Amino acid sequence: MEEILVFGHKNPDTDSICSSIAMSNLRKQQGFNAIPCRLGEINKETKFVLDKLGVKSPKLLKTVSAQITDLNYVEKSTISTEDSIKEALDLMTKENFSSLPVIDTEGYFKTMLSISDIANTYLEIDYSDLFSKYSTTFENLKEALEGEVISGNYPEGEIASNLKEASELESLKKGDIVITTSLTDGIDKSIQAGARVVIVCCRKGDFISPRVTSECAIMLVRHSFFKAISLISQSISVGGILNTNKVLFNFNKEDFLSEIRGIMKDANQTNFPVLEDDGKVYGTIRTKHLIDFHRKKVIMVDHNEFSQSVEGIQDAHILEVVDHHKFANFQTNEATKIRTEPVGCTSTIVYGLYKEAKIEPDEKTALLMLSAILSDTLLFKSPTCTSKDVEVAKELAKLAKVDNISEYGMEMLVAGTSMAKSSMKEIINQDKKIFPIGDMEIAVAQINTVQIGELVARKEEIAKEIEHEIGKYGYSLFLFVVTDIINSNSLVFTYGKEIEIVENAFKKEVVNNEILLENVVSRKKQIIPFLMTAAQNM
């Protein structure tokens, strides 16, 4: 059964992880192969929840970009170095190919054989030294001529002799191959001169048996003399005419379509070989194949903006979106089931889906969703919290056998706020979101803590890391919001060339890159809207 990947946003928080797992569990119980995923490392708070329940962290998902393996059509034809040019031409004609990947006897890729390679070989052919210059086999010769051996012992293996006409018997050496018509004298003299194979060009009814008996193989060919000469050149083994030094682009089957499109467009090449990891041929692709691919099926939870989602989300088939945020620039290739509600946590919505499906979550899943609600609403203190969040949390607490919601919630939040062993890069990027406003990008990172003094003491580290982020990504403004979950205040460290936006947004002066926002705990409701309004009025 095909996988459905369920994931939250980048820099995942507890709601993002727990809602992904809970949503996956629901769809699994409904018969789908839903796989919970994460788009980054889990934070300490989330680790506390998962460890408490003995639940494994979801698998890390780096991309859902379409790969070559997702293409609905890949040409699978190949030709072996031991096959004849005739076999290659027949296959090219049948499949309308201009070139083919060549493999060795063990199936490993050698190079590409093109029509022009074959044409150039024909221009250089001298039939007198055909078999000494180009490698081929007796089997290929017989197949190319569509010959019938009517007497003698036809040899096998590689041909190491010369091709002669009956008129050249004076230079014939023992073991050579002679081509002639049905004249008995020509055949007899060829046998007597030591020919290994005599190719006779005539219809079977016109054939006159030789008077001389020997082990020399007589092969009857139902083509004219001149046609037979032409066909003999096609018996040359593909391996004998290969140019292994030509520059070719080839890809691995796991390569992403987004990475190879430009290469294929600009390359002076029509067919592109695709290889397995071990160097064997997976197939051949052309530019036209790239528009028809299978999209990975996904369910997005706790986000809807592509900028906050997994790499390659535009290539995916988005089956569902379950979110409690505003929608911005959301566009899909197919119809999508969307479930969004103005509540404080995605898990509140997910629990509603359980109830609608008449499926009761097990104890672990109930505690996952309860943890998400307590985290996202800061123990119901956030202005984003609704009465529905509180009601659902109480129901989940019963299912999870949690007697004291506040006590469990505080234990979880405290476990997630210890930063003593964390680098400033880890702290700032733990929950960072980017908001494009006009031609600017504003980064707002947030962390909840019960020990705000820990971070104030590390202000020099904060400044250094934020300046590094601004220099690396070009943010116009960066806010690092440190939220005191006990007193429901936020201390904001802000840097960048547009600090004036912060002062206009909150009607307060930024002093030494700091501003205290009293009774502010929600980035979504109490910070971002004011920043956007101030930026638009600049």
From TrEMBL:
<feature type="domain" description="CBS">
    <location>
        <begin position="71"/>
        <end position="130"/>
    </location>
</feature>
<dbReference type="InterPro" id="IPR001667">
    <property type="entry name" value="DDH_dom"/>
</dbReference>
<keyword id="KW-0464">Manganese</keyword>
<dbReference type="Pfam" id="PF00571">
    <property type="entry name" value="CBS"/>
</dbReference>
<dbReference type="Pfam" id="PF02833">
    <property type="entry name" value="DHHA2"/>
</dbReference>
<keyword id="KW-0378">Hydrolase</keyword>
<protein>
    <recommendedName>
        <fullName>inorganic diphosphatase</fullName>
        <ecNumber>3.6.1.1</ecNumber>
    </recommendedName>
</protein>
<dbReference type="InterPro" id="IPR038763">
    <property type="entry name" value="DHH_sf"/>
</dbReference>
<keyword id="KW-0479">Metal-binding</keyword>
<dbReference type="GO" id="GO:0005737">
    <property type="term" value="C:cytoplasm"/>
</dbReference>
<dbReference type="InterPro" id="IPR000644">
    <property type="entry name" value="CBS_dom"/>
</dbReference>
<dbReference type="Pfam" id="PF01368">
    <property type="entry name" value="DHH"/>
</dbReference>
<dbReference type="InterPro" id="IPR046342">
    <property type="entry name" value="CBS_dom_sf"/>
</dbReference>
<dbReference type="InterPro" id="IPR004097">
    <property type="entry name" value="DHHA2"/>
</dbReference>
<dbReference type="GO" id="GO:0046872">
    <property type="term" value="F:metal ion binding"/>
</dbReference>
<keyword id="KW-0129">CBS domain</keyword>
<dbReference type="InterPro" id="IPR038222">
    <property type="entry name" value="DHHA2_dom_sf"/>
</dbReference>
<dbReference type="GO" id="GO:0004427">
    <property type="term" value="F:inorganic diphosphate phosphatase activity"/>
</dbReference>
